[in-house]
Amino acid sequence: MNPLPQLSADRAALSGVTTGVVFVGGTAASLARSDVPYPRPGSDAPTIRDFFQGNRGAARTSAVTQLVSAVTLGRFTASVVQLAGSSGRGSRALQATAAIGGATAVASLAGSGLLTAALTRKDAGSDAETVALHRRAFLSGGVVHGVGFGLLVGALGVAGGRTGVLPRGVATAALASGTAGLLTPLYLLAEPAAWLIPVGRFSGLLLSGFAGIRMARGRR
Questions:
Q1: Alpha-carbon Rg of the chain, whole angstroms?
Q2: Closest to 47 measured CA to CA, from 60, 62, 34, 57
């Protein structure tokens, strides 16, 4: 068995913790401030406006949360890419997977944040345009983000397992979480598959936070 590599402490990896705290805290705050439920995909224009324009404070909290989370997730991606570089054989392919997944997750989350902010404007457009904008925000922040984040968390699971940063069970859980994220496009074929979006996202955030703490400690 090959010895595990020595790893320097990566304090910036704590951005994995920050991402989860900001996203979950912001989502909870947004829902708590709103007096109507968040509109589900496929909702009509009046329902969408009730939330985004009738509760601008809550909707803008959601938008800002997504944008800040995108920034911290970008920094965590860099830490995962660095970790993957110490994973031994196939490390370059693993680094590329983490980089592509992270970049996709960051861009889609930021895009969703900007689209969410656009929905809060009074001149958001006609009913058809409002519905289309809401769908694009959902696809960007839900489906596309799910795939990108799934790639990143899956790469984290492989790299964390190979380097010993993650215990075997946690590394396996990261692979399962990543798989859930990669399967989120199934929602486009069958609506019940929508549950894959929160499962992949929140489990991935939890695992990223755990990994970030372990990476920040390093190992010699």
A1: 18
A2: 34
> Does residue 5 sit within a domain?
no
Cα 81 to chain centroid, rounded? 16
Domain-embedded: residue 70: yes
Residue with tokens 């609506």: 191
Helices in the chain by DSSP H: which ranges?
A: 15-33, 45-52, 56-84, 91-119, 127-138, 145-163, 168-182, 196-217
3-state DSSP call for residue 79? helix
Over residues 160-190, the pLDDT tens digits come to 999 999 999 999 999 999 999 999 999 999 9
Q: What's the chain's length in residues?
A: 220
A 10 A CB-CB count for 40 gives 12
Structural domain containing residue 99:
11-217
Q: Is residue 2 part of a domain?
A: no
Residues whose CB is less than 8 angstroms from the CB of residue 144 and which lie 6 or more positions away in sequence, other chains included: 104, 108
Count of structural domains, the chain:
1
Q: Which residues contact 40 (CB under 8 A, 6 or more apart)?
A: none
Indicate the pTM of the whole model.
Answer: 0.92
Beta bridge partners, 7, equal 219
Beta bridge partners of 219: 7
Distance from C-alpha of 50 to C-alpha of 134, rounded to nearest angstrom: 13
pLDDT at 207: 97
Q: 218 pLDDT exceeds 70? A: yes
Quote the pLDDT of residue 211: 96
